[in-house]
Amino acid sequence: MTEDRSMLLFSYGTLQLPEVQMAQFGRLLEGGDDALPGYAQTLVEITDPDVIAKSSQRFHPIVTETGNPADAVAGKVFAISAAELAAADEYEVDDYRRVLVRLKSGRDAWVYVKA
To answer: How large is the angle between the packed helices 18-25 and 82-91, nearest 10 degrees?
Structure first.
């Protein structure tokens, strides 16, 4: 039986990295280009050694809502399972919270934004 991968996850940062995907999901995710309108991207310093080890990066992108429809953050949208969404929750540090958003394509997807 195949796992239901009907949830959408939008990533603008380290969840796009093959090494992070293999560590968190045990597979490489297939995704397509999309964008998150009304948000702007900055960086946050990561202090969790496990997350730094998986991403090899001390600074990760993070997005905040601007309310300006002209702002947009480019990224990838992935079809994942509920178990994979839980694995993504475990990866993200307390600086992030998961919200449901409408992407430029019109699809609704989960994304991690500034907490």
So the answer is: 120
